[in-house]
Write the structure tokens for this entry.
Amino acid sequence: MNRDKQPKRTTIYDLAELAGTSASAVSAVLNGNWKKRRIGSQLAEKITRLAEEQGYAVNMQASLLRREKSKIIGMIVPKYDNRYFGSIVETFENMARQRGLFPIVTCTRRDPELEIEAAREMLSYQVEWVVSTGATDPDRVTDLCAASGVRSLNLDLPGSKAPSVISDNFAGARELTRRVLLNHERKLGHKSPLLFIGGRGSDHNTSERVKGFLAAHAEMEITVHQHHILTCGYAPEKADDALSALAQAEGSVPMGMFVNSTISLEGVMGWIRRSGHYSTIAPTLGCFDWDPFVALLCDDIQMVRQDVPAMLSSVFDIIDNGAKTTSLIEIPPVFVTSP
Amino acid sequence: MNRDKQPKRTTIYDLAELAGTSASAVSAVLNGNWKKRRIGSQLAEKITRLAEEQGYAVNMQASLLRREKSKIIGMIVPKYDNRYFGSIVETFENMARQRGLFPIVTCTRRDPELEIEAAREMLSYQVEWVVSTGATDPDRVTDLCAASGVRSLNLDLPGSKAPSVISDNFAGARELTRRVLLNHERKLGHKSPLLFIGGRGSDHNTSERVKGFLAAHAEMEITVHQHHILTCGYAPEKADDALSALAQAEGSVPMGMFVNSTISLEGVMGWIRRSGHYSTIAPTLGCFDWDPFVALLCDDIQMVRQDVPAMLSSVFDIIDNGAKTTSLIEIPPVFVTSP
DNA sequence: CTTTCTTGCTCAATCGATGGAGCAACAATT
DNA sequence: AATTGTTGCTCCATCGATTGAGCAAGAAAG
């Protein structure tokens, strides 16, 4: 039925000609306000039918140029290589669509330059909001957006210039540490400190988690060695290298660890397996993040799952209803295994 | 320096006024063809400086409306909940950016209606290409795109109306099955067939993998029971339920399995753990897909990793150089563990 | 001193959709 | 018969960037 060779896409002008009417009538019908524009229902039906037949799709570029609001919402995200960010993106897309917004997501691989580049590109597309997820330098993104009058907010890692929604890292880490310490004591028959590994010492989440880690130790009157806080970065190899170096330096191997993310856990598990030091007794582990296979396959591990649905509800609540730029919303994470 | 309250974004007209020149001069300078347009270098510098100062960002909607090419490339993807699709998206974004294309990715949760909806939305944004990844009904997407003169291609699951890039499912599955069967024989002391679980019987990949699975059995002269091919769908619960039902019906439990994806593997592992039937001897497993934690934590498993970089190189080769609409490119997957 | 080039810019149409303003035609009211 | 209202449209400016065409001023050539 349709023209097979369509060198150009169908426009409202094409439809207007086919229907023997004007472009504005077509426009009015196709975006649903034909009653307000007093278009007759017969003409409306005819236009709708023709649009269907011709496979018409509105040219958003033209439409958005004319409109005042773009209804585009952008998100930058560090990686797609773990369940946490994966579920953030999936939930974000769903909730945006539910609100009639068009989500644009881009992955910036923890590279501050790429973050800025991506934000700039989103501004060009006239986004109405930018959500910076786990951004290395969220305030720079906020500044850039503010200069164009675009609102932004931070997710996962907080900034100081836009509202931020994050996990309650301190409380989560303290509780996680407490549980792992109890496990550990049960296993060893005596109290013993854990090793903290993964994350960047400079980022807010890691430093809060370290505080929670230390607080839990203090509450149980266990002393932690300063050099057992290894905030070596997020990449698996970094955790692996840090553990090798530590084992080398100390001549012994940690028996209990607080691992700061699943991505660091990959490195930790790789090292555990290769090191050969754990054949008689498995280490007691805790991980600030969740992965289904780890939950299924690993016995001596406690995990917390960051509450992605609650976090994104909070994000969209701010988008729908506003919030003070300085507000910091902390969402309690969920404990996956029983205490 | 900048105006703090910027009710509207800066346009080339604002810059033209500030520079005491015309909008076309500004446009020429800012998109780099000012030499062709014979704009003096002093004026060019002045405009560049002003644009910087004002935090100018081009309005893509306006720019794209005027241009002939949008440089936008769309991808639809089923889920972000596994490493395979995660790495597809990440690689896709990188390679698109390298070519100066703007990637738009959207997740359609294996829902055919959402796939079409998303494709339609992408067409509105004037995408030049649509890549359908793991689409339930790729030909419908292709038809929709073709009606607007937009090229498309299929990734992961093939279609008949656009070029398709997929894994070599038959060869991969045959080799995987062969390895698992050898493992299994070594362990049991005698030959024994495997169970096939996961995926949709109606999809091309699953049916090719079943063929490879059967071929490997045939080569080793092992008989497979027809009702041991459980193509129950991809969701973890489905695999779990199918195994429960089978165990119930047969009064016994499979000791070797070919699992069709990591997402099905989640269900399989959950069932294995809960069933209590594997306390004395662990099942021998193979998985057509890869996950780092499974590789690290599970001993008796063989995995194949689909070659995402090669697949996407192929995709962009088609985008850069074209291909016949009927072409089907099969990329050999990579074996992660040694045979 | 005229003609021809070159340089450095500006003008105005254009892309497709939108919506305020306005214009016929007819109906209803005074 | 004249006024007012209603219905069903169309006209046209507009959004911001791009680009072919063209115009002045000065330099070079004849």
